[in-house]
Amino acid sequence: MIHVLTLVAASTLEHSIPRAARSALEAAGARAGDGVWLAPAHAYELPFEGIEDRVAEAAARAALGTAPVDLLAQPEAGRRKRLLLADMDSTIVVGETLDELADFAGLKAQISALTARAMRGEIDFEAALKERVAMLAGLDEAALEATYARLALTPGAETLARTMRKHGAFTALISGGFRFFTSRVKARAGFDLDIANSLETAGGKLTGRVVPPIVNRNSKLDALKRLAAERGLALGDTLAVGDGANDLPMIQAAGLGVAYRGKPAVAAAARARVDHGDLTTLLYFQGFTEAEFAR
Fold it and tell me: pTM for this structure?
């Protein structure tokens, strides 16, 4: 079976890096083939046989040291996934929407501290969500629109979603946050579907309650399985990406699970991680060339 090692730089991938990776793989016992530039001076893949993927990754990483390069070794066959399930906050958009909403209530510091603990898996996600939303009771609904106006897409997010759709994949945004934001981000970034929680409002203000049922870590895993089954796909045909502890079950179940700027526990447990590049790194990991991207 042919395997490939993909190397993606945060900026410029010096030619010395693929050479160093090849030497490392061969020293570990691999038979390396001819490499291909997926994007000039930015992303490169090297086919190999004879050693396991984890061995190849460890050898390449040791050879590259602290170079700002994301890498992944995997079988060449089946790399292109047909279902993408992506977390929203700190993955598809920059930052946490609930923290930004709290800023309009003068509570950003208190709420963001709880968010950080929940995303690291230190406290129960659902309980922390209810506690944070309760603190916003009485906030004017206009703060939702003002918060959305602040949101920026993560670099590469739109290219990721639109390229996978262009090549036949179904794309879904799933969030423990709120549909007020996910519905807008879905349209803006080019996803097919969004799944999230709803904030209860009355008289133009937040009541401080989340409308049940709450989207949590189990909901994300269930959505991955359901969306795959509805399309007749095996889990091996899926890609899931996120950063927090509530994303971990879906990341671990997906054919390609990626921690994007993941919290330590998530990055340690995910099959792949992106610490340096933008979200187009997920396309390079699937073997897409830059010329195939949707613009």
Answer: 0.96
How many CA atoms lie within 13 Å of 102's alpha carbon, on the beta-carbon side?
Answer: 21
Question: Which residue among the candidates 34, 53, 70, 89 is catalytic per the annotation?
Answer: 89
Domains and CATH numbers, the chain: 1-77 (3.30.70.260), 80-94+153-295 (3.40.50.1000)
Q: Give yes or no: 275 in active site.
A: no
Is residue 1's pLDDT more than 90? no
Over the stretch 242-253, which tens digit does the pLDDT of each residue have?
A: 999 999 999 999
Q: Any catalytic annotation for residue 89?
A: yes
Total count of residues recorded for the chain:
295
pLDDT digits (tens, 9 = 90+) for 44-93: 999 999 999 999 999 999 999 999 999 999 999 999 999 999 999 999 99
User: Which of these is catalytic: 53, 70, 87, 222?
Assistant: 87
133: enclosing H helix or E strand: helix 125-134
d(CA 42, CA 8): 6
Task: Name, in order, each residue with C-beta under 8 angstroms of 173's C-beta and a sequence gap of 6 or more.
Answer: 86, 88, 92, 182, 185, 186, 189, 191, 193, 194, 195, 196
Pairing of strands 43-49, 36-39: antiparallel
The residue that leads in pLDDT, 289 or 126, is 289
Q: How far apart are CA 262 and CA 168, in angstroms?
A: 27
State the Cα angle at 223 between 219 and 224, rounded to 5°: 120
